[in-house]
């Protein structure tokens, strides 16, 4: 089964032509986000390819699935901090003079990977948060590793061996 992605991130005001073109070029370049002018030498930048795409009008971003879902949050955070947010790193950079750096991102995208894990990213007024979940149990039961046999009633476990 291929990865499945649903949802979108709304962008207000919409991205302009230059911003959309840069996003498309960066996504098609094959280089990672650490290879961008603002990402070089920054260890907080994800070592991932950009898989966010803008719609033709620039009012929303969707995940194209070309990168693993675990990079949803960190790559969206990169877009806010480096390219589109009010204090973006490209602000004032001559090569990015057409970037307005005034965008607000809001929305939610969820992904279910081939490994069964679920990844969710949420943007709320440029604050990006992400989380992931374990795959569902094949039998539909509890996912925690349990004991093969229950302990007798007179046995108290003070410290599990896994601790």
From TrEMBL:
Residues 129-151 are annotated as: Disordered. It comes from the Bacteria. This is Uncharacterized protein. It comes from Nocardioides currus.
């Amino acid at each position: 089964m291929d990865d499945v992605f649903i949802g979108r991130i709304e962008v207000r005001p919409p991205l302009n032509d230059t911003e959309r073109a840069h996003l498309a070029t960066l996504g098609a370049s094959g280089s990672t986000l650490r290879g961008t002018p603002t990402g070089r030498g920054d260890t907080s930048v994800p070592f991932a390819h950009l898989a966010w795409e803008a719609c033709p009008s620039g009012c929303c971003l969707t995940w194209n699935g070309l990168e693993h879902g675990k990079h949803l949050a960190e790559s969206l955070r990169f877009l806010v901090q480096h390219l589109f947010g009010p204090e973006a790193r490209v602000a004032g950079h001559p090569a990015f003079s057409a970037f307005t750096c005034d965008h607000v991102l809001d929305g939610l995208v969820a992904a279910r990977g081939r490994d069964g894990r679920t990844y969710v990213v949420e943007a709320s007024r440029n604050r990006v948060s992400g989380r992931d979940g374990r795959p569902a149990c094949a039998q539909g039961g509890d996912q925690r590793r349990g004991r093969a046999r229950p302990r007798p009633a007179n046995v108290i476990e003070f410290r599990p061996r896994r601790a």
